Amino acid sequence: MRAVLAHAFLGHLVQQPGRALMSVLALALGVALGVAVSVVNRSALDEFGRGLRTVSGQADIEVRGARGGFDESLYPQLAQRPEVETVSPLLEIDAKPLGAAGEGGGALKLIGLDVFRAASLSVALIPPPAQGTGRGERTAESARAPGLLDEDTLYLSPAAAQRFGLASGDAIALQSGVGSARFRIGGLLPAVGAGQMLAVTDIATAQWRFERLGVLTRIDLRLREGVDAASALRAIGADLPPGVFVATPAQAESQAARLSRAYRVNLTMLALIALVTGAFLVFSAQAVNVVRRRAELAFLRAAGITRGALVRWLLLEGALIGALGSLIGVPVGYALAALALRLIGGDLGAGYFQGAAPALAFDPWGTTGFVALGIAAAMAGSAAPAIEAARSDPALALKSGDAADSFARFGPVAPGLLCLSAALAIVWLPPIGGLPVFGYAAIALLLIGSVLILPRLARLLFARLPTPRAPWLALAVLQLRGAPHLATLGAAGVLAAVALAGAMAIMVGSFRQSVDVWLSQVLPADLYLRASRAGESGHFDTAEQVAIQSTPGLARIDFLRHQSLLLDPALPQVALIARPLTADRAALPLLASVTVPAGSIGVLASEAMQDLYGWQLGQRVRLPLAGREIEVVVAGIWRDYARQHGAVAIDLATYRTQTGDMRVNDVGLWLAPGADTAQVARALRARLPADSIELAEPGEIRKISLGIFDRTFAVTYALEAVAVAIGIAGVAASFAALAAARRREFGVLRHIGLTRGEIARMLGAEGALVAVLGVLTGLATGTAISLILIHVVNRQSFHWSMELVLPWGTLALFGSAITLLATAAAVLSARAAMQVDAVRAVREDW
């Protein structure tokens, strides 16, 4: 019996695979994208974690400060503590390679270490004896190898040597200020992971050559045997200066992973869009399949198969479609992941994992999860059709012409309204663990609720349509009036596709417009001069600043200093921007501001500081600067699209007074009336080392920034196209199957005088009206989803706001194109049904 049922339910998938092909491909695409994102994330995090463990080695705890570092006097204080057995100081610098090595861009992570101390903790960072003593172990003897302590020698990881095309004995120049520090490659570090791009030199060399005397960025500690790590963490942490924190290596790795968590999660959600649209396509395909096989399924019921068994077999059909899609999607996903890692890196171009070149890693849990999601999506799409088939009366279903009553029971509007109400109730709930969980849930409920109320909307819309005079058009309207629930089978796929594509179009368009406006606000100068990106080794000293000020043709000069602050060890570092504020506060896009009390220091905080640290206008907070805390007042909140983890702007003069740091990284230049930009640029390059500086006009920066934005969101455009294609395929499949089920009706129409062309136009009109219903409801749903994306998901994920921009022209063109394509698909789908002779079609009856 089971063999007969298996043939009845699963055999048609083998005999007519084309009917399930689009469903399989849609699910395969969703699984492939999900697996690709998961594998890329896993590969990047694994490599990043290996890099952190390589540096920390056998340390039990580590003391870290901001990227600018802290006073090295902390090192002997920690070394004298009774809990500590071994102490290893480090200075980490993101150094910019110059010359041929720097042509590809990017920075080299340079680690300055005390080789005698590090030999007992970070063994992987010590060159092997083969490059020094020739003995069999890496110990302090390796540190005495000729060249290791030389002031011009560094050692490269194999990945860095390959990236920059260097070998032992070669030379490399690294930017220091606007000058260069030249080094000889003493050898390689084979114990460093294959994906880690770093270099090692003596800590005294790093401090001297990069003008960081007396500064450390990290101290690794190994505790004495028997000392409780938790107690040591509390005791040491209580004695650290402001802005310096202690953590275990595992905690540090977890904190580093938080840098990209929101980005990774949102990429995964984006990949799930294809799975969602695939589930709706399965629903449409299985629903019309139930209509087409209505008599066959009724015969099986009459032959003794129970309702429960019928539901299980139809769900098994859906599971098989999902399994086939997953089977195709997994290898495609791994191929996409390998391509992405090779072309754009483990952060998919977002810049989170610089200094790492991850290799493809197998992700069993992520892969299994997306395979299960693919099967679950197909089964979810099959559930409603399976229930409808089980509820049908076999006696009525065996009679030809009963198809119009299919899915009539799925008209109640209460479940849909309940979903919409639930979405509205949870959408504003706070994030969980920094992730907009309720925002995602609200989007899902909104989409499901819109589909559930679609039959009621179809009934209301089609009931109010006037009856046209043309017979073929009147028949189309009457058909939709009489069986509006059947129209929703095709409209559901269109609604899902249009809603998701429209929501992404509105969100991306709003984001791009907001970024464009923001760039015009933060780039008011005529020319911008940069020594290096924030965090790299370039800067302008006082002498270079004087040279810039003496350049003819300049009317105004603004110097900017970029540093970082570590306010919470569980959160990423906060950017500190020192710039003139008192005379030019308008250079930052303020959202709100207050007057600073006399005698107080005012700072401007980005929106992320509100979300992550709870800073509010007028609040007094404490900032760690130069090893001590100063009290400041939050004088304004500003919009910052460049730094999602928070930024604080402070007046440059105040910063210099508090820290004594006179260096700057960037310079904004306003030209004097009549001055020529090219001449001023030549004069600046004549005064400064041309290889170490970057000059750009605001229009050029804006163009590059928007180009990066468009490349970043290119995947969303591709997914929008996929969603549209899936929606149109759903209409085509639905009308093809419904047309096949209505062959007797078409035969009767042919007998009473309608031509094949009129029947085709009738189906085309039905398709157009169904598409209009799907497009209108999809655009309404998509607009609501876009509001959630803009005001909830983006704000809770990346901590920035944006202005809503509705691209009416694009949406109208998009909706019109969908309607025309769906109409064409409906007309073409009618051809097969009308190939049957009219007499034979009328005689087809059980």
From TrEMBL:
<feature type="transmembrane region" description="Helical">
    <location>
        <begin position="297"/>
        <end position="315"/>
    </location>
</feature>
<feature type="transmembrane region" description="Helical">
    <location>
        <begin position="805"/>
        <end position="830"/>
    </location>
</feature>
<dbReference type="InterPro" id="IPR003838">
    <property type="entry name" value="ABC3_permease_C"/>
</dbReference>
<keyword id="KW-1003">Cell membrane</keyword>
<comment type="similarity">
    <text>Belongs to the ABC-4 integral membrane protein family. LolC/E subfamily.</text>
</comment>
<feature type="transmembrane region" description="Helical">
    <location>
        <begin position="365"/>
        <end position="387"/>
    </location>
</feature>
<dbReference type="GO" id="GO:0044874">
    <property type="term" value="P:lipoprotein localization to outer membrane"/>
</dbReference>
<feature type="transmembrane region" description="Helical">
    <location>
        <begin position="762"/>
        <end position="793"/>
    </location>
</feature>
<feature type="domain" description="ABC3 transporter permease C-terminal">
    <location>
        <begin position="722"/>
        <end position="835"/>
    </location>
</feature>
<feature type="transmembrane region" description="Helical">
    <location>
        <begin position="721"/>
        <end position="741"/>
    </location>
</feature>
<feature type="transmembrane region" description="Helical">
    <location>
        <begin position="322"/>
        <end position="345"/>
    </location>
</feature>
<feature type="transmembrane region" description="Helical">
    <location>
        <begin position="407"/>
        <end position="429"/>
    </location>
</feature>
<feature type="transmembrane region" description="Helical">
    <location>
        <begin position="20"/>
        <end position="40"/>
    </location>
</feature>
<dbReference type="Pfam" id="PF02687">
    <property type="entry name" value="FtsX"/>
</dbReference>
<keyword id="KW-0812">Transmembrane</keyword>
<dbReference type="InterPro" id="IPR051447">
    <property type="entry name" value="Lipoprotein-release_system"/>
</dbReference>
<feature type="transmembrane region" description="Helical">
    <location>
        <begin position="265"/>
        <end position="285"/>
    </location>
</feature>
<feature type="transmembrane region" description="Helical">
    <location>
        <begin position="486"/>
        <end position="511"/>
    </location>
</feature>
<keyword id="KW-1133">Transmembrane helix</keyword>
<feature type="domain" description="ABC3 transporter permease C-terminal">
    <location>
        <begin position="269"/>
        <end position="394"/>
    </location>
</feature>
<keyword id="KW-0472">Membrane</keyword>
<dbReference type="GO" id="GO:0098797">
    <property type="term" value="C:plasma membrane protein complex"/>
</dbReference>
<protein>
    <submittedName>
        <fullName>ABC transporter permease</fullName>
    </submittedName>
</protein>
<feature type="transmembrane region" description="Helical">
    <location>
        <begin position="435"/>
        <end position="454"/>
    </location>
</feature>
